[in-house]
Every structure is written in C-alpha cells, then in structure tokens.
Write a structure and sequence with these properties.
- The protein is of the alpha+beta class and 258 residues long.
- The chain is built from 3 helices and 8 strands, in the order αββαβββαβββ.
- The N and C termini lie far apart (168 Å).
C-alpha cells in the first residue's frame, strides 16, 4: 500500500454531520427601521390678492381729487410728473419719464419756461501798439546821413589836452586845433595830425580820443570822422562844438606810470 503524503490525504471524517446550507444570496440594503422620514406635507398655494375696485364712490373720489390738487399746487409740475386723466373716471395714469436727450442734439426747453439769454462775448482788450522809440538827440547818424546835414565837410576842430601835464609828450593842458575833412579824414589821420602838433613826442599808440558830447571813445582807426558825426560845417550855421573842444586827448597808460 502506497503511503500518500500528509497533504494529499483526504480530510478525516467529522464526528457529526453539518446540516445543508442554502446557497448564498446577497441581501439588499435596506434602511434601518425608524430612519425613514415621513413625506413632506403639500405647500398651500398663496391666495390670490384681492382685486381692487377701480370705481370709487363719489365721496372718496372727490377727496382724492382735492388731495391731488393741493399737492400739485404746492409742487411745480414737470412733464415727468404730469398725469393724464383716464376717460372712464378711473385713477389718473402717470406719464412715463422723458427720453434722455441725444448727445450733441440741441436742448429742448419745456413750454412755459423762459428762454435763457446767452450774453454776447466780450471783446478782449488789446494793449496799445508800442510806439516807435524817439531817437535820442545824441544818437549817431550814418556817415552818409551826417554828411547830408553839412554845408561843407571841411572844418577846424579843437582837441583838449589832459588836465595833468605830461612834459615828455609836450602835453601842457593846451588846446590843439586840427583842420579835417569829415568825408575823407579817418581817425588814424587825425592822430597823425596830433602827432605832428606835439612835435612827434607822443606815440600814436598812446593816444586815446574821447567824444565830449557822447562820452565814448573813438576806437576804430580806419573809420572816417563822419562815422562818428565829427567835423564839417552844419547847414544851419556854426561848426562842430561852436568853438568848444570836441574831443579829449587821453593818454593810454599802463599801471599808471608815465
């Protein structure tokens, strides 16, 4: 007899017999007892609102009309607040609000309101036009314009030496006289005449000529005397300066040393 392993042996017989079991069937899930809510009671429908009778008795209608008349008299009526009376004697129906105006359209003035008056624009006050400046009496004329005022361009002008003596240059507070032609004599030519009168002692580069009438120095040697309005005989009579010195001779010093 073949011995089978222990795991291949049939199970031993039970000492008692099990009753037959019915086949397994899953039970449907049922809610626990006592957890089922009762059905909700039906919601009653709202009662319809009572209908209002539009027809009022004579006394109530008269009182309402009097109250409306007193309110309308106390407040100004506008087109939006006016009411149109119904033809059947019922409650007046209010007028719907007016349509807002379209942008850019002209404004509509309700009837009965005064038309606003637009004031005329005020013309701006302009400042007075500036007047041309009056030329100064000592203003320089152009050379041609100055020569046109002369009866003769030739004249003798006087030049005053400085109040301080400069013996080395023969300047002893004297008055020099030079005959010049305003249309032909330049400032350099005038300095050459002064150089000759001072016996060639004062260098020309040390000479400065200052106009007494205008208080300015004559700087450009190449300019004619007419450009400085100096020299010549005036048409109205009299020469330049009327006998008084026209120019001042001012030595040009460095460090105030002679």
């Amino acid at each position: 007899q073949v011995q089978l392993p222990y795991y291949n042996k049939p199970p031993p017989a039970l000492p008692y017999a099990l009753p037959p079991q019915p086949p397994f069937q899953p039970n449907p899930i049922q809610p626990p007892q006592g957890s089922v809510l009762p059905p909700a009671p039906p919601v009653p429908l709202p009662a319809p609102p009572p209908t209002k009778t539009l027809e009022l008795d004579a006394s109530n209608k008269r009182q309402k009309l009097e109250a409306d008349a007193s309110i309308s008299a106390a407040q100004p009526t506008t087109p939006a607040a006016e009411a149109i009376p119904a033809g059947d004697g019922s409650i007046p129906v209010p007028v719907p609000p007016p349509v807002p105006p379209v942008p850019g359209a002209p404004a509509v003035i309700p009837p009965g309101l005064p038309v606003p008056t637009i004031p005329a624009p005020i013309a701006p006050v302009l400042p007075p036009a500036p007047t041309s400046p009056v030329p100064a009496t000592n203003a320089l004329l152009p050379a041609d314009g100055y020569l046109a005022t002369l009866s003769s361009p030739t004249s003798t002008i006087k030049i005053a030496a400085p109040s301080e003596d400069y013996p080395q240059w023969k300047l002893l507070q004297q008055t020099l006289e030079c005959t010049v032609d305003a249309s032909n004599t330049s400032l350099k030519d005038l300095k050459q005449l002064i150089y000759q009168d001072l016996e060639k002692k004062m260098p020309m580069n040390k000479m400065q000529l200052k106009c007494r009438k205008r208080g300015v120095f004559l700087k450009t040697d190449s300019d004619l005397l007419a450009a400085y309005n100096i020299g010549g005989e005036r048409k109205e009579g009299g020469g330049e300066g009327d006998g008084e010195p026209v120019l001042d001779l001012v030595p040009k010093m460095r460090g105030k040393r002679r």
